[in-house]
Amino acid sequence: xxxxxxxxxxxxxxxxxxxxxxxxxxxxxxxxxxxxxxxxxxxxxxxxxxxxxxxxxxxxxxxxxxxxxxxxxxxxxxxxxxxxxxxxxxxxxxxxxxxxxxxxxxxxxxxxxxxxxxxxxxxxxxxxxxxxxxxxxxxxxxxxxxxxxxxxxxxxxxxxxxxxxxxxxxxxxxxxxxxxxxxxxxxxxxxxxxxxxxxxxxxxxxxxxxxxxxxxxxxxxxxxxxxxxxxxxxxxxxxxxxxxxxxxxxxxxxxxxxxxxxxxxxxxxxxxxxxxxxxxxxxxxxxxxxxxxxxxxxxxxxxxxxxxxxxxxxxxxxxxxxxxxxxxxxxxxxxxxxxxxxxxxxxxxxxxxxxxxxxxxxxxxxxxxxxxxxxx
Length: 376
Ligand SMILES: Cc1ncc(COP(=O)(O)O)c(C=O)c1O
Fold this sequence. Notes:
By secondary structure, the chain is of the alpha/beta class. It has 12 helices and 10 strands. It has 2 domains: 3-25 and 279-375, Alpha-Beta Complex (Aspartate Aminotransferase, domain 1); 31-276, Aspartate Aminotransferase, domain 2. The chain has helices at 3-9, 28-40, 46-67, 80-89, 103-116, 134-140, 163-170, 218-223, 263-277, 279-299, 324-333, 355-375; strands spanning 74-77, 93-98, 120-125, 145-151, 175-179, 196-199, 212-216, 317-319, 339-341, 344-347. The strands form 2 sheets. A 7-stranded mixed beta sheet has the order 1-7-6-5-4-2-3, with helices on both faces. Strands 8-10-9 form a 3-stranded antiparallel beta sheet, with helices on one face. α2 packs antiparallel against α9 (263-277) and α10 runs parallel beside α12 (355-375). The chain is globular, with a radius of gyration of 21 Å. Pyridoxal-5'-phosphate binds next to α4.
């Protein structure tokens, strides 16, 4: 068995789970690490407490390795939304973003603009197909633009932006802020092209909530004011009492307080699994499974609205069925877990999705098609 086989073998849940873009059921190593940390924190020994605390630095090192960053530029965050708040509240100028972005981007940008009293102005993109292409950004670009904030992979359209193309387009004097929630750990891309990268590990990394991170590269730190900096964001590793120091010059400035006790251990376990299996291999197996989902859906005659091109997608297949409520109920009855939002159904396999799960999907869609045909 090689490392990828081990990784694939660790997908030990019952067949039917196709909702990895919403939540990743916890992996065996994450569960084991979590249980071990609970025990370690019960004995009151300083060495046990220190051992659990070591996972903060371990996680930072692994994230830096996976995104090609300097470890000092990586901080742990309670959520990706918290991380985006640090990035967007300290910005000024005109910032481009898609109006259809996940609210962690769009709503946070709107709130930051409101709080800035005119210093920060969003420039909303609203492409008909929801895709933030390099051309769409080019059309909105002018000298007022200071930054672009974008999801690497869109939660609805599944569209994977061209990071290198966007970087080249906006140039070095504007910031590229990337929400990597739907790509981190399953897409092998040049994350270092971005000045700020945020992500978390409760979906594709199977590590549970509280496991987010942010990378603030030096260029980002020069231009983003750490407005939301908290007690852990001051220089040195000490508690600032009886003084009111300025925020640190390091990425640590973009933190508020110490992380949740158990989250870094889970995060480190999830990161290690992915690093050992190899992101490129995970990406390629995931792409194969997305191909299989597309083939099943196409055969069932259901419209696909997400990106089909391997280079411009990751793990999301979005459907626009004629009867979304009926299809959603049929999938639930068949034990297939997906996300239904309005008229769209999102199917998200993982690299470890097994043949039984794809067969359940196939059978459910075929049965639903026959039913619709008979009742029509
Ligand atoms: C693209 C994207 N960004 C951000 C989030 C939310 O992240 P968090 O819960 O860590 O704030 C999600 C959750 O689905 C998402 O899909």
